[in-house]
Amino acid sequence: MANIERFPAGRKHKLRIISALILLVVLAAAILALRGVGRWLVREDPLTHADALVVLSGGLPYRAEAAAHYFESGYAGEVWLTRPEGPSDRLKELGIQYVGEEDYNRQILNHLHVPESDVRILPDTIMDTEQEVEDITRELRKAGKSRVIIVTSPEHTRRVRALWRHLAGEDLRAIVRAAPEDPFDADHWWRNTRDALSVVRELLGLMNVWAGLPVRPHSH
Q1: I need a surface site. Which of 11, 42, 83, 213 has the fewest CB within 10 A?
Q2: How far apart are CA 179 and CA 182, in angstroms?
Q3: So what's the pLDDT on residue 19?
Q4: Are 172 and 137 contacting, i.e. CB atoms less than 8 angstroms apart?
Q5: In contact, 32 and 152? CB cutoff 8 Å
Q6: Helix (H) or strand (E) holding 119
Q7: Distances from the Cα of 92 to the Cαs of 5, 33, 84, in angstroms?
Q8: Is 174 helix (H, G, I), strand (E, B) or coil?
Q9: What DSSP element (H or E) covers 129?
Q10: Contact 148, 53 (CB under 8 A)
Q11: pLDDT per position in the chain (220 positions), as tens?
Q12: How far is it, in rounded angstroms, from Cα 155 to Cα 152?
């Protein structure tokens, strides 16, 4: 305290101004960084031909619509759908018929002129994107294929690419594409709860990947 009091009054005032300016610069940088997070999460690969298209679970109907467009454009000859976990067993006990998300995606594809014979629902139930990637790589090897186009939501693309690098071998390649009609607003993601929660979820998911996936999928 004695040392501070020895500063002349004018010098102490200048130090306060400098400290305030530094704080403002740091706050401005943090705000700019946060504003740019939405755009940073969107990380697509150049589009090229593949053995199959894969529609990740979620994002109805936008992901399936994008996959149908790529199919019609000739980028792949079949579309794979993942089978997300659902309350089918419990609802069956209650006498209620449950239609899974994969069936809605199949109907969207059929409606958009993807033949039923070219749509395949992968057999294993998945609970998160990590398991989806593991399921896709397993099915690729079984089928003797090596390249897929994975269609997901824009904010999900960077994490999908990170998971693929972490889980898939060098012999397999994923081309990750964002559904163009998805309503995610990368430039103003903080303006609505849907986009804000998506960004938080993706950041937490990326940290889990970078840490080596210590947080595991929940058990049935």
Answers
A1: 11
A2: 6
A3: 66
A4: yes
A5: no
A6: strand 119-126
A7: 77, 48, 17
A8: strand
A9: helix 129-143
A10: yes
A11: 445 455 566 666 666 776 665 666 565 555 555 679 999 999 999 999 999 999 999 999 999 999 999 999 999 999 999 999 988 778 888 989 888 999 999 999 999 999 999 999 999 999 999 999 999 999 999 999 999 999 999 999 999 999 999 999 899 999 999 999 999 999 999 999 999 999 999 999 999 999 999 998 876 5
A12: 9
What spatial distance separates the first Cα and last Cα of the chain, rounded to whole Å? 60
Alpha helices in the chain (DSSP H): 2-5, 9-41, 62-72, 88-93, 101-111, 129-143, 157-167, 193-210
| Pairing relationship of beta strands 147-152 and 119-126 according to DSSP bridges | unpaired
User: What residue has token string 């690729």?
Assistant: 140
Q: Fill in the amino acid letter for 164.
A: W
Could you tell me which residues are beta bridge partners of residue 83?
Answer: 125
Residue 87 DSSP symbol: S
Tell me the two tokens of residue 56: 């990740």
Which pTM value belongs to this model?
Answer: 0.85
**Token couple for 103:** 């069936």
Domain spans in the chain, listed from the N-terminal domain onward: 42-182+190-210
Order across the sheet with 147-152: list the strands. Answer: 119-126, 79-84, 52-55, 147-152, 173-178
Q: Which CATH number fits domain 42-182+190-210: 3.40.50.620, 3.40.50.1000, 3.40.47.10, 3.30.470.10?
A: 3.40.50.620
Question: What is the structure's pLDDT at 129?
Answer: 97
Please choose, from the candidates 135, 146, 209, 149, the residue with its C-alpha nearest in 3D space to the C-alpha of residue 178: 149
Alpha-carbon distance of 182 to 60, in angstroms, equals: 9
> In this structure, what token pair is assigned to residue 121?
């629902």
